[in-house]
Amino acid sequence: MLYVSQLINALQLGSIYALVALGYSMVYGIIKLLNFAHGDVIMVGGYIALFSLTALAFPPVIAALITVAGCTLLAVIIEKLAYTPLRFAPRLSLLITAIGISILLQNLAQLIFTANPRSFPTQMLIPAGSITLGGIQLGFVPLITIFASLLSMAILTFLVQKTKLGKAMRAVSEDMGAAQLMGINVNTIITFTFALGAALAGVGALLYAAGYPRIEPTLGMMLGIKAFVAAVLGGIGSIPGAMVGGYLIALLEVLVISMGLSQWTDGAVFLILILVLMVRPTGIMGRIQMEKV
Amino acid sequence: MLKITNMNVYYGNIYAIKDVSFDVGEGEIVTLIGANGAGKSTILKTISGLLRSKTGSISFAGEEISHTASHTIVKRGLAHVPEGRRVFLQMSVKENLEMGHYTQPGGTMDERIAQVYDKFPRLKERRRQLAGTLSGGEQQMLAMGRALMSRPKLLMLDEPSMGLAPLLVEQIFEIIKELNAAGVTILLVEQNANMALAVAHRGYVLETGRIVTTDNAAALLQDDAVRKAYLGG
Fold first, then answer.
1. What is the CA radius of gyration of chain A?
2. How many domains does chain A have?
3. What's the domain range around A82?
4. Taking CB atoms and an 8 Å cut-off, how many pairs form between chains A and B?
5. Superfamily assignment of B2-230 in CATH?
């Protein structure tokens, strides 16, 4: 019984890591940028969800839509203002800009919302309650988290595999020059990728706030970094890799906690990062990069 | 159909294309020949808008395209099969063809794919396979089929014979002739000057970024200097 409830914990946390890791991986796949502002977009999403539900008293579905739309819009604005002007700059400049945006968002949030954590009214989003299955109690929050994440990932997979824009996205991610020769507008595809990643981050923000109901300006930092490790473990640039990586990292964390070593969870995650980079930098599902001659 | 005037291209400090002017008439096969590094691919990339010329003009079908965004050029009827084929290796054969159709109205896709399969039956057999699993010759066919999906008026081919067995090279050149007979104008870049001049109407010889000779293909095949430099005596 204990194992099952631990497994549910891991699936709940892993679902969120997977959603966030997807945003890292897709953006990296397209423009080779580790978008370190991604976690902070989630933090902003947390505040949007909080105020939509409390101050504005919107019904849960409307608040959720506003959160997803807000994260998407924010990411597109960041891309247009901060990353597009650097399209032909060295990759390091882009990376440093991403870190700068991350710090900017955190400090803006601190200025506007203060550094004090606020508690998130989970029941206003997902009703309290549970179902009992074979003697195991399953809360609505983990159930909805797992279900909503799987649904989001299924929609994403459909978009990327079957639609014209999704196929163009894969083409750009593989060979930008050849994609341009096909008549694909690379800028549109890059914006589309950021928007898609941020929409998933919006879903992640809602589910994270519901499961771990404490909103503060630094919320996105550790979540973002762990999702990044998940993306690297799965193979950065790979969409199925990000999903697998997210669940594996969560499983590892829950395992470490259940051994009574909860203060070691972060350490264990970063140990995984170091090991992956040492032993198999392309991750579980990453493509082997062939040097172009 | 295509007229290049005073093209000058730099890679950083390297002066790669020096005051190149040439033209391709409707219905022609024109070839640019020259040694490795002479600047042949650079010229094609500049026409496609992947690189920019500092000066001069590129006019295609009567319109100036030297400042047009590269992704809009294919829509005007100018398709480019790049050096090294550059098919999307992680995508299926059919998906590669779909990408070639990206700028075209959706309703015509299945018909165009059927036409490409007619021309290259091997692609039909392998339509579900990832392009990365194809042989070099099949990838070349896919790259050409993908470019044909946009119904180009002018097709630019960069080293279509590269890395292929002699039998396959003949096959590819046969297809180039067929396409031309069907009304597609062709600009062909080749290191294999013998083959290129055998199918082309006219040729330009490029040496370190400059055009040094131009003539009818038959005359170039007889030209002593050209024979010595590019045709193995």
1. 19
2. 1
3. 16-219
4. 66
5. P-loop containing nucleotide triphosphate hydrolases (3.40.50.300)
